[in-house]
Amino acid sequence: MQSNKKFKKRYLITFSLLLLLLLGMYFGPSVLGGYALTEHSAIRFTFPNQDGEVVSEKEIEDRNIVVWDTGKVNYVKLIESPLGIFKRVTNVSSISGETIDEKMKVTWSGAEIEDEFYDVIFAAELLDKEIEKVIVSNEQDDKKNTPLSIVEEQSTVFIEMDIKDGFAVHYSKLPNGDVGSFSFRGIDSDGKIISFD
């Protein structure tokens, strides 16, 4: 009878500790170094730490890029699983930089991962339905009327992003020298540049 009570007490203590650990992992990624058990928890409980929903998603290599809609601002988040089952958001940026022509909102963000290399995420929210593709480049002669063939020739980064659910997202691992001064071009079905940032 006494050993049965001890067993129940140990069982309750063990169960309570496991439950607390699981709840902490689910609700507290910011406390646990950003790691979470589920992708939703990793997205929800990291910056901006607001309710929302995933409105666009793309898998690239062993990473997942999502657009998190909070109702006010959309955020692009890069999610990795460095420990296998655990998820972690390693890069976040708000999609809030509106082009002068008001046809796109764009952003990019780089996070240093090792000497001389960055994880870089790119995102565009399309406000004009005529845009069918977004091109990101880093040429020095960044003008709207520069032909795409010259843009590609002068760029060390030239990324064609397809559109899904009104968003274009991309991830790249880039050397330090290629990060910065990116131009975004919205391309229509005829290959014309109709938006530029």
How would you sum up this structure in a few lines?
With 197 residues, the chain is of the alpha+beta class. The chain has helices at residues 2-27, 39-44, 148-154, and strands at residues 35-36, 53-60, 63-69, 74-80, 87-94, 97-98, 104-114, 117-126, 133-137, 158-162, 167-175, 183-187, 193-196.
Strands in their spatial order, largest beta sheet? 1-5-4-3-2
Give the amount of beta strand, in percent: 35-45%
Main beta-sheet annotation: 5 strands, antiparallel
The end-to-end distance, rounded to whole angstroms, is 76 Å
Structural class: alpha+beta
Note the run of SSEs as H and E.
HEHEEEEEEEEHEEEE
Q: Which blocks of ≥5 consecutive residues have pLDDT under 50?
A: none
> How many separate helices?
3
Radius of gyration: 22 Å
Share in helix: 10-25%
Give the total of beta strands: 13
Overall geometry comes to elongated
Rounded average pLDDT = 84
Note down, in words, how this protein is organized:
The structure is a single chain. With 197 residues, this protein is α+β, with helices and mostly antiparallel strands. It has a 5-stranded antiparallel sheet with strand order 1-5-4-3-2. The protein is elongated, with a radius of gyration of 22 Å. The mean pLDDT is 84.
Observed structural traits:
four-stranded antiparallel sheet; 197 residues; 3 helices; alpha+beta
